[in-house]
Amino acid sequence: MDKLGVSVSAIDCDILRSAFRKSVIEDEIPEDRWRDHAVQMIRDFTGAKAVDPDLLDWIVRK
User: Fold this and answer.
1) Which superkingdom heads the taxonomic lineage of this protein's source (predicted)?
2) Which of 6, 13, 20, 62 gives a 20 to 30 Å CA spacing to 34?
3) Which long-range contacts (CB under 8 A, 24 or more apart) does 51-56 make?
4) 29 phi/psi in degrees, rounded to 5
């Protein structure tokens, strides 16, 4: 369970990051929209409105 009350396993984090990277490439998402895109992916996956900023930073990191 993270500090926002949503449990995301290490495997789930890797899956989210991989899916994020793939979608950025396939959909040609510009870097200035990466954070918003990642936030939406995390929300869709977890069902939570709040997103852990550490998880978000890790997913969008190059």
Assistant:
1) Bacteria
2) 6
3) 51/4, 52/2, 52/3, 52/4, 52/6, 52/8, 54/2, 55/2, 55/8, 55/13, 55/16
4) -80, 125
Instruction: Summarize pLDDT for 14-50 with one digit per residue, the tens.
Output: 999 999 999 999 999 999 999 999 999 999 998 989 8
> Cα separation of 47 and 31, whole Å?
24
Domain boundaries, the chain: 10-60
DSSP 55: H
Q: Is 24 exposed, middle or buried (0-12, 13-18, 19+ CB in 10 A)?
A: middle
